[in-house]
Amino acid sequence: SSSFSSSSPFSSLSVDTQNLRKQIDELSTFSDAPAPSVTRILYTDKDVLARRYIKNLMGLAGLSVREDAVGNIFGRWDGNEPELSAVATGSHIDAIPYSGKYDGVVGVLGAIEAINVLKRSGFKPKRSLEIILFTSEEPTRFGISCLGSRLLAGSEALAEALKTTVDAQNISFFEAAKSAGYAKDHDDLSIVFLKEGSYSAFVELHIEQGPILEEEGISIGIVTAIAAPASIKVDFEGDGGHAGAVLMPSRNDAGLAAAELALAVEKHVLDSGSIDTVGTVGILELHPGAINSIPSKSHLEIDTRDIDQERRNDVIEKIFQSAEMIASKRGVRLSEFRIINQDPPALSHKLVIDAMQSAAKELNLTHKSMISRAYHDSLFMARVSPMGMLFIPCYKGYSHKPEEYASIKDIANGVKVLALTLAKLSSF
Ligand code: HGY
Ligand code: MN
Ligand code: MN
Ligand code: MN
């Protein structure tokens, strides 16, 4: 078994920051938006190029690489006792439209570099170490967040739903997956589900996507819980008509119904009694979308979260009641009110928290416990393995926009803590 003690070879953990910075920049070029923005959507050509880039780096790190039916990618370093359940780490590389180049990427490129750091230090793991690149953490193409990790965590409902899911261009999930070289001979995605006990621990390195660490000058965030996300799709339908000829009293404007519901989302969230409740209408589409035509259809997508799931569910109920009230008041039809996901929060496991804290201490890095208001693949890995997350500061907490930035120094700190955490978790 591998020896691991405080006088371990880890005092000399060295991160190849030059290479890591170059990789982050190179990966960001696989994008459907001009720099500095990044757009990288599931199964597009740019996604496939980015996947190939990561698989190559995994190979160069001496990992054995495999992919599952939906494109979750696994890079494995066999330990001295490969029959034991492995320790896993990873994140995502898909990017929502016009976003940045660090969200998810830090946890994938950083994980590969953490393996290289451990190899350079002469460490040999007892338990195998596995890096996971989760397919489609972002909800952009098929409307469901954490698609790959939900399936790994055994979501029967999602495996079923994907059989009939299409994207905005009416391309089916399976057609898109096949175009990227996946889902060849399967239409039963339960083959993606992880076997019981696949991992003894899972850790994800990620930028904070919030301002706390930078404001307080702290190097490492030890995530203790991940907030409970939910998303809802809503459609209103009215008669539409000519913007000049139809007088106001005889209108049933689907666009105004959507606008009123968006403001109702804000009201219910603000009235929840807690600053931890958030709500966003990030998508609002009007049909036919002509200045002189009264909207006959409107489509909104609502994202609402809280660290307390009861409070969040109460907000969802109030949003539904508002949608019905607005529809009847305005004489429009509420033709769809579909809750896409309504997930519980996840707690990090003490085993992983202790390993992350002692790693940060040994590296003399300031650290603090905190919750994650963003969701991550870790939210679902927590269902099948003890989970933990490491945060590093990011510029003004910016994320999901091109100004997103993390310094290579902060990234290197995260990589070192991740490397040491993996070493600890794989040694017993
Ligand atoms: O939206 C989220 O919380 C994640 O960054 N996709
Ligand atoms: Mn994101
Ligand atoms: Mn992310
Ligand atoms: Mn719709």
TrEMBL record:
GO terms for cellular component: endoplasmic reticulum. It comes from the Eukaryota. It catalyses: (S)-ureidoglycolate + H2O + 2 H(+) = glyoxylate + 2 NH4(+) + CO2. Transmembrane segments: none annotated. Its main location: endoplasmic reticulum. Its EC number is 3.5.1.116. InterPro entries: Amidase_Cbmase (IPR010158), Bact_exopeptidase_dim_dom (IPR036264), Peptidase_M20 (IPR002933). It is found in: Endoplasmic reticulum. One of its GO terms (molecular function) is hydrolase activity, acting on carbon-nitrogen (but not peptide) bonds, in linear amidines. GO terms for biological process: allantoin catabolic process; purine nucleobase catabolic process; ureide catabolic process. Pfam families: Peptidase_M20. Its cofactor is Ni(2+); Co(2+); Mn(2+). SUPFAM superfamilies: Bacterial exopeptidase dimerisation domain, Zn-dependent exopeptidases. Keywords: Endoplasmic reticulum, Hydrolase, Manganese, Metal-binding, Purine metabolism, Signal. Pathway: Nitrogen metabolism; (S)-allantoin degradation; glyoxylate from (S)-ureidoglycolate: step 1/1. PANTHER family: ALLANTOATE DEIMINASE-RELATED. Homodimer. Belongs to the peptidase M20 family. This is Ureidoglycolate hydrolase. It comes from Erythroxylum novogranatense.
